[in-house]
Design a protein that fits this description.
5 helices; 3-stranded antiparallel sheet; alpha+beta; elongated; 4-stranded mixed sheet
Amino acid sequence: MISQAVITTAIQKELGSFFSTEAHTDSDIVRYINSAVNYVASYRDFSFLIETQTVVYTTPLISQTITYTVKVLGVNGDPTINILRKADWFFPDLRTNAICIDGDEFIANDAGTYEVLYVKLPDKLTTGVAGTLDIPPQFEQVIIDLSIMYGYKDLKYYDKASAKLGAANAELGLLAQRITNPTPRQTRILSRNHRI
């Protein structure tokens, strides 16, 4: 969990002199933070974005609303089930052993209970700048840098925004690497006799 107050304070500190004007209201700060959260979510399918939902589907071939999914990773743990978008669902030859999941719509050939493993969007802030984001704490600096970057873009300081984006991408790259390979590789140090 990341405190929104910490992010807001960092934004105000970095963009300090601009807060004497009406350049950044609370709604602007909420927009910067939400944009930063979306950027992190679209960077990679981090484990905190992956969830399972149970869909009780009652009427075959009729659309049912489900939780919004960015990307579906699997259904019922069965790799043979094809997952189609709505545009492809209307081709009958593609429907065999397939399920249609597009955004928040679910369509299947048969009624039943389905377990959907999917990538979600993190919860958005709605009002105010108090509370917490449901994101692991190691992402705090990335969210701060990206939020400040969006503030600089609002002010049309594209060079400073670009520098913040570069820093945030480097941090995200390191976090992605650390999550993928949690134990660092051990390398042998050669003795003097083995050096070239």
